[in-house]
Design brief:
alpha+beta, five-stranded mixed sheet, about 50% helix
């Protein structure tokens, strides 16, 4: 009788493990994407304020504020998409703004990307290994596109 109970318990625990593990992985991915979206929105709010500060990670965006002549350019996150393959999560962020800024969109995209990575490192369990960003056991690739008028 005891062996049957142990066998049934093992089958139940194995089933729970098989069901819960993919759910936890999906939850981790969702949390990461939500954090990147929130962080990108904070960056846009900071840029729209037109005021510079010298604290990390916001100081990474100061050049954009200076080149926009300390005025709001209505920065906003227009889309976030993600994809997963093997052990890599790719997050694509698109930011739009209005008005003229004397700075190349690619340079602004690099500043946004640096901000997002620094914010992830400071406020989550993300880590850098060499030049690669990891969240848990997954490599994270963040692509930022800045689109102006």
């Amino acid at each position: 009788m005891a062996i049957e109970v142990l066998f049934i318990t093992a089958v139940i625990l194995t089933g729970v493990l098989l069901v819960v593990t993919p759910y936890l992985n999906e939850n981790t991915n969702t949390s990461l994407i939500a954090y990147v979206k929130s962080s990108a929105s904070h960056a846009c709010s900071y840029l729209n304020s037109g005021v510079t500060v010298n604290s990390q990670p916001y100081s990474l965006l100061n050049a954009i504020i200076v080149k926009s002549n300390y005025t709001s350019k209505n920065f906003m996150v227009s889309s976030i998409t993600s994809s997963e393959s093997d052990d890599t999560i790719t997050i694509n962020v698109q930011v739009r703004y209005s008005g003229r800024i004397d700075l190349d969109n690619d340079v602004m995209a690099l500043a946004f990307k640096a901000f997002l990575i620094r914010d992830l490192l400071d406020h989550t369990d993300a880590r850098l290994e060499g030049t690669s960003l990891y969240y848990g056991d997954k490599k994270v690739v963040i692509n930022v596109q800045v689109v102006g008028p």
